[in-house]
Amino acid sequence: MSTEVRVPALGESVTEATVATWFKKPGDAVEVDEMLCELETDKVTVEVPSPSAGTLGEIVVAEGETVGPDALLATIAAGGAAAAPAKAEAAPAAAESIDIPVPSLGESVTEATVATWYKKVGDSVEADEMIAELETDKVSVEVPAPQAGTITAIHIAEGDTVAAGGILAAMSSGGAAAAPAAAAPAAPAAAPAASGKDVENAPSANKLMAEKGIDPSSVSGSGRDGRIMKEDVMNAVAKPAAAAPAAPRAPVSADDAVREERVKMTRLRQTIARRLKDAQNTAAMLTTYNEVDMKAVMDLRNKYKAEFEKKHGVRLGFMSFFTKACIHALKEVPEVNAEIDGTDVVYKKFVHMGVAAGTPTGLVVPVIRDADQMSFAGIEKEIGKMGKKARDGKLSMAEMQGGTFTISNGGVYGSLMSSPILNPPQSGILGMHKIQDRPVVVNGEIVIRPMMYLALSYDHRIVDGKGAVTFLVRVKEALEDPQRLLMDL
């Protein structure tokens, strides 16, 4: 009796993969979940584990060949390695092997990168104890142990990518009984026949390097044991300017190398970079500026902040004033709260306010839903809650989707003036800046006032200059005379 080895799930919209490396050859004994081969798609590397113990039979798809989803890769014959456990019948057999899968990543998220393993093979864990942390395009996801036991195998190493629903590791519920299974992780490490740096690159990578005339020594490999993958070659091709001056720099490269640090971009940073560039490439983005006298807001805040905090249990900050002022202005200029969908303009009859927040891993934009229905206290509480989640890396994908307009406060970092970039598919973003005392003319006299520059970046495809200027003027008027918010003027 034989078992089929088929292509695992490749992720949404991925229709084919290339067999990069076979770790086993026909006749080799294999254990359950031992890595048999590695596939390469346009985006990620996928490891194929053995579905059963036995002996590897026929290899149907050779290295370098392309296969579709669920295609037959090889067969495994029963027996061989499968007979070995029979000798260990005297060992405790009560231990149950449990797979540790990737937790739910959120709608439309198809893959994640293993950021950190908190446990190693052989470590005991308690139920719900955090054993790993994954990183997606937007958030960090903690992986808890499904029950108490011992980690027996780690299938996905730190820095490697795993598909949604994939298996990260295995554990045993039988404590010390898990020890024999600890040998499983050794297989992937021993898989490359060569030692040291002499590893076999992905066939598709070798082919592309040959076509482009690229020296493999100039390409940094991101695959297992430094193996060069197709994506690594594509990245090298995309940066020819960096390779060109290499020769003139050679005399000082050795000295410079010790003063440089090369760190792979996190998935969050890669996504931020891609989305910001997409925004510039897609939208007809312009920015208009104004300034606001913050004295009225500051006086009102100082007058009521103690009473406000006592009653509502939250501090009265500037963000609630700006949120209210923007909501007020969006009612008059609805195109700033709209988005383009094909040849349609979709006007939002609600305000889901995005509030940009800086975190140690990058900028995220949690969304305050139905902010137009909230009070000052409600807005401050929600901003505080979302801000804490952002700093702790606990935001879910759902909490960062669906925004209709965004506010970004660069002033907390000391920025005096900037041009914020749109958060697609939104058509407007307000940039706040540092409050700075400046001389201004009020009623014919020069006085010192706490002033702030405001910037509105907007998509000129649906927002005209008149609408953008009107929006910013309404925000300015509401902040300089907060009573206008109460009177809806």
Structure report:
By secondary structure, the chain is of the alpha+beta class. The chain has 3 domains: 1-90, OB fold (Dihydrolipoamide Acetyltransferase, E2P) (Beta Barrel), CATH 2.40.50; 203-257, Irregular (Dihydrolipoamide Transferase); 269-487, Chloramphenicol acetyltransferase-like domain (Chloramphenicol Acetyltransferase). It is built from 12 helices and 27 strands. The chain has helices spanning 84-87, 186-190, 203-212, 230-237, 240-243, 246-257, 267-282, 295-312, 318-332, 376-392, 465-480, 483-487, and strands at residues 2-6, 17-22, 29-30, 35-40, 45-49, 54-59, 66-67, 72-77, 97-101, 111-117, 124-125, 130-135, 140-144, 149-154, 161-163, 167-172, 285-293, 338-341, 344-347, 353-355, 357-359, 362-364, 367-368, 405-409, 428-432, 436-442, 445-459. It starts with a strand and ends with a helix.
Q: Detail the poorly predicted runs.
A: 81-93, 175-197, 241-249
Number of helices: 12
CATH level-two architecture of the largest domain: 2-Layer Sandwich
Mean pLDDT value: 81
Globally, the shape reads elongated
Give the C-level CATH assignment of the largest domain: Alpha Beta
Q: CATH topology of the largest domain, anyone?
A: Chloramphenicol Acetyltransferase
- Percent strand equals 25-35%
Largest sheet: 7 strands, mixed
Termini separation: 80 Å
Helix content: 25-40%
The number of distinct structural domains comes to 3
What integer value in Å does the Rg equal? 29 Å
What is the H level of CATH, i.e. the homologous superfamily of the largest domain? Chloramphenicol acetyltransferase-like domain
The count of β-strands is: 27
Structural class: alpha+beta
